[in-house]
Amino acid sequence: MQENHIHSDTTFALRSVAFRVPGRTLLHPLSLTFPAGRVTGLIGHNGSGKSTLL
């Protein structure tokens, strides 16, 4: 079993996020941690799931 550790300096964390519609996976499972006090950019190709993630 995987433990989910979120540190006190974490502003936002995602764990094993995925998005599927019938017959298609739009966003494969991923985990992200956004540290407090840092600017984080999300970049990728058109249709890669950036807006779906947010």
UniProtKB/TrEMBL annotation:
GO molecular function, one term: ATP binding
Keywords: ATP-binding, Nucleotide-binding
Domain of life: Bacteria
Entry-linked Gene3D superfamilies: P-loop containing nucleotide triphosphate hydrolases
Signal peptide segment: none
SUPFAM superfamilies linked: P-loop containing nucleoside triphosphate hydrolases
Domain ABC transporter: 27-54
Protein name: Ferrichrome transport ATP-binding protein FhuC
Annotated source species: Salmonella enterica subsp. enterica serovar Uganda str. R8-3404
Phylogenetic lineage: Bacteria, Pseudomonadati, Pseudomonadota, Gammaproteobacteria, Enterobacterales
